Amino acid sequence: MDPSLPSGTTKRRVELRLRRPWATWFARPTVTIDGVGHPAQWGTGTWAVPVDGGTEIGVYLYNRVWRFGAASVRVAPGDHDGVVLEYRAGVLPVGAGRLTVLAR
């Protein structure tokens, strides 16, 4: 077995760039893949997503008081490896963030 290939149905990788706002209010990001939350860190990372079917990728911020800055985008099943997404939160800790597709 080739160790560089992921196992199972997670053979597609998505790059996600989480841009930290200037005032975070002690917030930490969480990435959701098809509704399942995964803790994340600020910066650039890659996430494994299933090959079959479309995948809903979302990001929200939380601190110990509230959850804010939620944004999501759907990655189509025909999209190849190399999808690049960028998340930016709003200036204030209210309202939605932006999750944009930079490359497909």
How is this structure best described in words?
With 104 residues, the chain is mainly beta. It is 0% helix and 52% strand. The strands form 2 sheets. The protein has a 4-stranded mixed β-sheet with strand order 4-1-7-8, with no helix packed on it. The chain has a 4-stranded antiparallel β-sheet with strand order 3-2-5-6, with no helix packed on it. The radius of gyration is 14 Å and the shape is elongated. The model has no long low-confidence stretch (mean pLDDT 86).
Would you kindly provide a brief summary of this structure?
With 104 residues, this protein is mainly β.
Globally, the shape reads elongated
How many strands, what sense, and barrel or not for the largest sheet? 4 strands, mixed
Secondary-structure element order, N to C: EEEEEEEE
Q: What is the number of helical segments per DSSP (H or I, 4+ residues)? A: 0
**What is the rounded Rg?**
14 Å
Question: Distance N terminus to C terminus?
Answer: 28 Å
